[in-house]
Amino acid sequence: MLKIKNTVIIKIIRLNVLLLLYFGFTQSSIGQGRIVDAETLEALPFSAVMNLSKPEIMTISDINGYFTLPTKSIGDSILIRYVGYDTIRTIFTKDSVVYRLTASQNELKEAVITADDGPAIAVIKKVLKNRPNLSIVDIDFYQCRIYTKNIVGFNTNDDSISIKGLSATKKYPSTFFIAESLVERQYEKRDKVFERVIASSAAGLKDAEFAIMPEDVQSLNFYRDYLNIYNKDYINPISPLSWYKYHFNLDKVYEENGDTLYKIDYWPKSNRFNCFKGMMVISDKGWAVQKIRIENASNEIYPFILQQEYKTVAGQWFPLKFTANLLFPSAVDKDIPFKITQTSIFDNVSFEPKALNSNKSNKTIFDPNAGHNLDSLRFIPLEKTDSSAYIFGNYIYDETPIGYVLKNMNFFINYQIPVGPVAIEAFSLYRRNLFEENRFGLSLLTNMNMMPHLQFGAYGAYGSSDKEFKYGGSVAWHFDKLQTNSVKYSYQNDIESNHLFRFRNVWFDRYYSNLYNKIENHELSYRYQRAPNNFYLNFNRKTIDPLYNYVFQGHNGDDRSPFTNSEASLGYNYYNGRQVNFFNTWYIVRNISYPIININLNAGFKGLLNGEFEYQSLEVNINKVFRWTLIGNTNFTAQAGYMLGQPPIWKLFNAPASRTGSFTIQAPNSFQTMPANVFWSNKFAHLFVEQTIGKLFVTKFSMPELFLAYNAGWGKLDKANNHEGIVLRDYSNGFHEIGAGFNSLIRIPIYDWFAFGINVGGYYDLTSRAPLNLGENFVVKVGFGFLY
User: 44, 100 in Cβ contact below 8 A?
Assistant: First the structure.
């Protein structure tokens, strides 16, 4: 213990020495200034600063008005400009200086635009009319480079922060993490993107493929009707009918470099609307946004400030610089939250007609040498706190338990726990279902860091109710280390439930399905996952022993368990989005403007490997979200299926029903008032529609959002007499239900902007045509989730 303690002390001393050496070295390498309003002393973000003696040296102030210039600019004359303010010329000094700009008196004497609904809205309508010529997603082709710097620290202006521990108070750098990347981006209309990370660096992450892209924080296309931040849609102030939910005020009209610029402030008309507040500067050159500042208008989520600046390149408006400030609750000090600052700069913009290969579309890859050449490519110099963040991050990586987490992050984000040469799948340790009740288990996979392509797996499990042991194993070959292209053989001696919920809701089967089979399964599968197109191909031979009374009479006689089924499956999933590599794994950021499409084909082969059943089936699922400025969102899901041949009961289509009592958990895209595990079919059609109306009010403990729902279904079961021992019913006369309720009716604050939300709704079975009867034709559903 003494040796460990001394080692830690030595490392802390080494860290402090490095910081002191760094501070002494860097304080003379960069000069800093701040630009503010002379009267209010408020920061002036996006101010342009130019070295008149060395025109190649120029910069733009950040969100808080700060800017930096290299030391070779000290003593030179600089020019500082900000829209609506008088330009000043001064000498740049070594000391940190506050530069005060005075509001310009050169306001245009005549209004250029007038309209009955106000000059600000008239300008907004001009921009809307020209929006197809401004949006970068409507450009046929473009190429650019994007340098992005992400900084994580405490929301303080000090260089360090004192944190009180169990035994002592210690000082830590106010900025403790930094990540930089330089990305080559290639775009083809519409929404086909290929990104190549040509250089990257992150404090404490020496070998991981890690890059936070600008689009992970804010959209590169400001001209969308909705802007998604923290996975939440906000109405764009420049969108059709936005003036019904926003106030607009034309603050000033100015001339600058031959352009007429309109400075417009905006804020929501009610806190019930998902709207921003901020300001924008509109140029009459193409009626485009030149600058915009976006803030959240309420404290219901984490505070953020986003700023975007655009310029013209070859006559096309294009992003120049994006900045973002995001605040998160801090476990260290409630009064000093974490702050994430992202700066993105665009250059090398071109519009060459270069078509994207299909294998590159919507994909981000890392150059093999991405971690070795950032210093020579960095657009802006590092500040003092940036370099200290690198030092501190590397110290954490090498000398603290957090380093273990960072080194194995690719496991943790896949819900795995690395233990030497293997990884434990966390969700295998405990599960609950209606048959086993409590399922305890252990599933192991070989460590992909040791064998990146070949992977072995094994598991065992035990049910507390059936008192049976289950086990299985697998071997897989991954053609890439991200596991997007794999072939796998697996063996299972386990149990399997009927499939009430298909496609994206299979998680709910464990809570509602009650028909279980004992199985022995051999399966060979292939997976190819590249957004937006994902394919899978399976072949399995399965021995099935129903754990309920069942006799199959489809073969002109009584067939009793165990049964043997040989089946081939082909699946296709369309999921439009951007594939992002993160900690040597990957995920897809969905583009909600596109639908989700799932198609499954299945076929049973009688006589092949002793298979007893012959059938063919097709299932289709389509989900689309329609967003409306005035009436909220419409979530639309349509499903259909058709089956030929003589399938056994576990291959029939089971209606997605979720009524098991008067009060139950809400399962999306299911029939809330239909009893579970009762209705079956070999051909069906389903429709699920939910319309959100908007928040009625917002308080600390409630912000109810009204929703209305309509669900309809039809299912026909042919040859029902093929199945004995269990009563099968279809819904060939149709099924209809309506519902209404409130999302986030109850809001339980957990920590500042973070809360636990409870949704409540009631559903009525229209098919019954009877008075409300709780638990029969009327149910109350409850949903849960986290709000931020």
Answer: no
Residue 5: what pLDDT?
A: 33
Q: Which of 398, 509, 520 shows the shortest CA–CA distance to 471?
A: 520
pLDDT in tens, 215-224: 878 888 888 8
DSSP string, 37-71: ETTT--B-TT-EEEESSSTT-EEE--TTSEEEEEG
- Residue that is written with structure tokens 């485009």 in the block: 288
Instruction: Report the alpha-carbon distance of residue 690 to residue 659 in Å, rounded.
Output: 18
Predicted local distance difference test score (pLDDT) of residue 406: 74
Residue 601: strand, helix, or coil = strand
**CB contact at 8 A, 565 and 542:** yes
- Give the pairing of strands 778-787 and 663-665: parallel
CA pair distance 459, 436, nearest whole angstrom? 17
What are the tens digits of pLDDT across the range 523-579? Answer: 999 999 877 889 999 999 999 999 999 999 876 655 677 999 999 999 999 988 766
> What are the respective helix, strand and coil percentages of the chain, to the nearest 5?
15, 50, 35
Q: Which amino acid is at 488?
A: K
State how far the Cα of 478 lies from the Cα of 745, in Å rounded to an integer.
46
pLDDT at 597 over 80: yes
Rg for the chain (alpha carbons), in Å? 30
Instruction: Beginning with the edge strand found earlier in the chain, give each strand of the sheet holding 97-101 in spatial order.
Output: 66-70, 30-37, 97-101
Pairing outcome for strands 723-724 and 778-787 = unpaired
